[in-house]
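Box 3.1 A note on notation
Throughout this textbook, protein chains are presented in two layers. The first layer is the amino acid sequence; the second is a token string describing backbone geometry. Keep the layers aligned when reading.
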Amino acid sequence: MPKIKVVFDRQNCIGAQACTAACPKYWKIAEDGKANLAGSQLNSQTGKHELTAEVNEEDLVCLKESTAACPVRVIILEQ
């Protein structure tokens, strides 16, 4: 299983919900209208939310689709 790191700039999220449509397992819309990345933690140095995990191929495809779908490019997927 590949190990990935997802870096999410929640502060600049516009709440388009494209990530939740592409990958609802990892993305949920919060009460403030912005997305939350499941299992992520806030990096106090960068101000961005990060998730590092080993994922199966299906989840990897899902996360790649959510990254590509984001209209403001606030999701970065590192492998």
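The chain has one domain: 3-78. Residues 3-78 form a domain with the Alpha-Beta Plaits fold (CATH 3.30.70.20).
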